[in-house]
Amino acid sequence: MSEKQLVAETLVAVIGEHLSSDEILNLLEKPKTAQHGDIAFPAFALAKHLRKAPQVIAGEIVEQLPQKAFEKIEVVGPYINFFLKKDSVSEEILHEILEKGADYGNQMTGEGRNVPIDMSSPNIAKPISMGHLRSTVIGNALANIMAKIGYQPIKINHLGDWGTQFGKLIVAYKKWGSEEAVRENPIQELLNLYVRFHNEAETQPELEDEARQWFKKLEDDDAEALTLWAWFREESLKEFMHIYDMLDVHFDSFNGEAFYNDKMDAIIEELKEKHLLVESKGAMVVDLEKYGLNPALIQKSDGATLYITRDLAAAEYRHKTYDFAQSLYVVGNEQSMHFKQLKAVLEEMGHEWAKDIHHIPFGLITQGGKKLSTRKGKIVLLEEVLNEAIASAKEQIAAKNPDLENKDEIAHQVGVGAVVFHDLKNDRLNNFDFNLEEVVRFEGETGPYVQYTHARACSILRKANFEIDLDAALALNDADSWEVIKLLQAFKEAVTKAAAQYEPSVIAKHAIQLAQAFNKYYAHVRILEDNEEKQARLSLVKAVTIVLAEDLRLLGLKAPENM
Ligand code: ARG
User: Fold this and answer.
1) Domain DALR anticodon binding spans what residues (predicted)?
2) ipTM of the predicted structure?
3) Domain contains 312
């Protein structure tokens, strides 16, 4: 039974005729300061039932409550504040964490059901943008979090490997490109060709027609078009894989847009059969007026299909293949309209599972307050950012811990981790500014700070030759350890909340709070002092390493034991 449940059960015995224990559970709050106890019940929730001042109600209830399960129960204003018994709670929590290890906080909500997560999904022949980085790291963290509560995540990289841009690219390559240049520096060269196409097309509009024809050829399986396309795709993918390796993010599927080419006729047939396709200026659309949305353009007048057509095919394919509990799409906020349309069309088609499709939008990364853009060939290369972060981590580690053995490996874990953590610590919908110096700091609310705290805790345990002893007394009573204990316990709620809101920042914030509370503990308490509480104190340190490492793992960061 959780502590909140204990409070709810205690209260329901007295006020059960007005509120159920679930209702009470929902009303319980966590006081902002420790002076107000651990859990508070707002007595004004009963004002309309009892028609008395909340202060009076609070006083009357407390008189009837059995006190023995708590250290004390106090009335402050309209609140009833419950103070938990620190020693029994700490005993229980530490015992549970030491026993379960990394499994602490695991839940079975998902019952093993599949959750495909559409994530990263960069576009072939273009660099991975900071936006794709966000999708990659948010998607990866959500996959870990969903797995933690018992779902089976399936990480899908829905590569942008189809579309009219390939017609443009083929035209540009045939006119101005060379095999050598593409081999040497694929993405940069393909991007140059793409940019050149747009510049030249401004004065030579016939280029656009040529591009359309080449894309049509591609859709009709023309051998030359297909060979070029496959080559561009392969070269691009090589560069993407390099970045995924740096991030240590791996995918279960690379079925991108092209994968659905042979699955689109069926979609168009289905839409026709269900009388959903209407003609509009030669094109085929699905009317979505009753959803307050613009019509979804499904097929152009020349027969070419569109982004949304491929997404419809992908949605049906995922439903058929994975029988999903939920289907997630981690894609920037700017595509919200697209996903609203996608869901609405699926609903119109009568798919009741359309309700299980969730767009998980996120905000922009800016630099100096400005949006980063790839349009004009000006790109912020993700790989460069990661390398700079690694170099900065390396410098700091060399200064802090010159004798560290595997410096390069740790610098990689810290540098990359810093970028990932910085991305995940803010609510995902917020825009945020990217400033490398701030990202790789070892102090403040950063990834390196959490990793460093974890490593410091590990080093205490090494110094003490600590070993887990589940039979030892683990009760702790002091205020500093209590702050840590409460956060160790709050981990479970953080996982539940992060999953329910698809919000990895909940975990990142928990990690920062726990690291801060632990550092305070470390500063105030002589952990290694020999007395009867030593094993309990060290067990607390051990529990902190377990939970911090788990926070970091869920976010996709490593937790080095030494740094
Ligand atoms: N390739 C797209 C882009 O970079 C993102 C794809 C998102 N996934 C999807 N199923 N539409 O904008």
Assistant:
1) 450-563
2) 0.99
3) no
